[in-house]
């Protein structure tokens, strides 16, 4: 997985010594409450280490699941992902090759424009390398995440049940 940088941020592979941060992040209901059909908080450091191993296992020239840190101090602030999007069971309308972008920040790092800045860097990178479109899905009540999509210039395509076995607002970004 490559490292991607922006003005204030650095996206790098997750490391085992990030486990305490990841557990702190994903044990918070306010961070996971909008994720998937049955959101669950993380409860053990072992779970965090297992999750880090899965994140690091992404082996692709464009996709990734990155730890997001500040560029100068290397302080962990969250997670940024670009990967194939899970299609709902029995769904036939979804394109099998569609990929999604997603963001999960520690509440201490909300309100600084970090999610938008990091996602913009990853979107620019992916679209410039020939990815035909990038999707984002957000729970209907997740207005903060929908605002990120809008700041990124993503187009709102309406509500759909095509992904993650649940109802989501769907956003799309195409190459310029
Ligand atoms: C979704 C989530 C990442 C949004 O975080 P966020 O901090 O609101 O989003 P951004 O990083 O784009 O920051 C925008 C905010 O920073 C402010 N900001 C401050 N300095 C800024 C700067 N230099 N540049 C841009 N925005 C700045 C903006 O005004 C905006 O604040 P506002 O919403 O009060 O108007 C965050 O709520 C989160 O992690 N939620 C839990 C996980 C989750 O639900 N993920 C999405 C699943 S679909």
TrEMBL record:
Domain N-acetyltransferase: 9-176
GO molecular function: acyltransferase activity, transferring groups other than amino-acyl groups
Pfam families: Acetyltransf_3 (PF13302)
PANTHER family: GNAT FAMILY, PUTATIVE (AFU_ORTHOLOGUE AFUA_3G00765)-RELATED-RELATED, N-ACETYLTRANSFERASE DOMAIN-CONTAINING PROTEIN
Protein name per the record: N-acetyltransferase
Organism of derivation: Catellatospora citrea
């Amino acid at each position: 997985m490559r490292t991607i940088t922006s003005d204030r941020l650095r996206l790098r592979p997750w490391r085992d010594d990030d486990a305490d941060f990841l557990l702190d992040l994903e044990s918070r209901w306010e961070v996971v409450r909008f994720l998937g059909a049955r959101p669950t908080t993380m409860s053990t450091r072992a779970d965090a280490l297992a999750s880090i191993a899965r994140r690091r296992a992404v082996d692709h020239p464009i996709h990734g699941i990155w730890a997001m840190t500040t560029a100068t101090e290397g302080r962990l602030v969250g997670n940024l992902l670009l990967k194939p999007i899970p299609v709902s069971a029995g769904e036939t309308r979804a394109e099998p090759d569609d990929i999604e972008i997603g963001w999960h920040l520690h509440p201490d790092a909300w309100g600084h424009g970090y999610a938008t800045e990091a996602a913009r860097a990853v979107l620019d990178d992916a679209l410039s390398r020939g990815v035909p479109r990038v999707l984002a899905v957000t729970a209907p009540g997740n207005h903060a995440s929908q605002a990120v999509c809008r700041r990124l210039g993503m187009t709102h395509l309406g509500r759909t049940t095509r992904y993650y076995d649940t109802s989501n607002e769907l956003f799309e970004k195409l190459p310029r």
